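Section 5.1 Outputs to date
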Amino acid sequence: MDYSKLSLASSFKKRAQRFTTLSHSPSRYPALKGAESRAQLDSLSYELLVDGCIAPDQLPDGLGTRISIRMEVLSLGPLIGHFHDDGSREVAVNTTANVTFTNRQLLNVSTHLIFRELKEETREFTMISYRNISQVFLEGIYDPVIGETHLIGCRKVAIGGTGVERGLDCLIEVEIQYPSENMEHTKITITSQRGRDDPLHFGPVSLLTDKTPCQDHSLYRMGQDEPLYFGPVSLPHYQNHTLIVAYRRTFEGILRILLLSGVIALTWIQLHYMKKQTNVIPYVSLVMLALQVLGYSLPLLSGAEILFISSSYDHDWFGLLPKVLNYAGRFLVLVSLLLTSRIFLMVYKYQNKPLCTSKMKHLWVPHNKLVLLSTSAVHTSVLIWLSVYGHRDMLFHPENGSYKTGAIHMQQSWMILKDFAGVVQDFFLVPQIISNFLLQTNVKSLHKAHYIGLTLIRLVLHLYGYISDPFLDSKFQDSEFVSPESTSEFRKSAVVIMIVVLAVIVHIQQNWKKLSQWLELRKLSDKLDEEV
């Protein structure tokens, strides 16, 4: 029996190869720093180590809350090494493999992956079965250019079956998508190549994990003499990870402040424009303003992240600066809320002004109700579309079809709520478009800088979210919860395109008179040319 699986891993890599997207282009992944040497190979194998805890919301019912996934590198290129439980490591180099490596060259790698549970009684990790997988020996290829490892795995099985030799089931594919050096999330996908009717088949497992090992930070805040103490192991084990995350939190705080300052400036421009052009005030959509007020209020009331989701780390970990930036961001949100509320009150008063004609006064209330109903229908339709393409069958357990309960069900509901909040903010122009259409007016109710500027801010947020965390949509281990890569790309692209289209529609509506005149002049000019 040939135990080498490199040819199968190479075929797997070709099948799974993704188009190199924008998210890969500026990124650097764990790689050799130059020509191959023992020290660099040892350092790289250390960085490719996976040792962390699975988040509680990814655990099936019946398992404890401290499930560890560990994948140690047994060999990398000519390097052969082994980690001991105490953290020490034995290494050796195959001197017969006289090959020079570069920092972009594919490397053969073999690993050992196990799932463990921390027992409260003994305070020790014991190996367990996680979704019918306990330990897998893997062999494959690491690509440092895109930070992905494609592996073929073998596990011991007690029963025979098709393709089982010497008690080993080797029809297992494992893909690991490492984060770039300044990012945080590692995605691990384990797939059985057996048919569903095969007794050795198991459902696809997809785990999204952070570099830090456990959600229970108190474990590694203990003293070194505590029985449960372990060092700050990272996932993968980047030595400068804490500093990188601190820089990222600071950068995200500064980015929030810059974007919120832009929102305030654009809102102020709209307020100033309405004060100068009082005739446009009643034509600004009250529903649009109400939804913006709601969008600013929710982060302040719930304590949620502002504008975009950051990492899951506490602000206290990285000193005072991220905390100050967070408070500054919330203050700017409050300023945006007050300015938008001021515009809302102006529009409401003008629509109910005694000097308004009776016809117009009786028009606004049913008009606003119709805009609200139409906007709700549009948002609900988009939300359903996002749920279908982004969280397919998310409310059903993939094994028995039953509803999930507890933390997972709450997490799924929270994902839907966040999707809805994102839809409302991304499509903030929908109420104004509907209002303009119903009134059949060419009034320039919104200043050009206002709606174009806010649209650009939404696009910046989507761009940053895509570059920083390309697989944040895949939060669950069940394959039904993880949309295919092509679907995820289509969803992200479609949302961005729709945001731009909405801004274009508003621009056309507000400039329709000029456009109509230009078209008529163009037709007249063409007609004169034909006569000549």
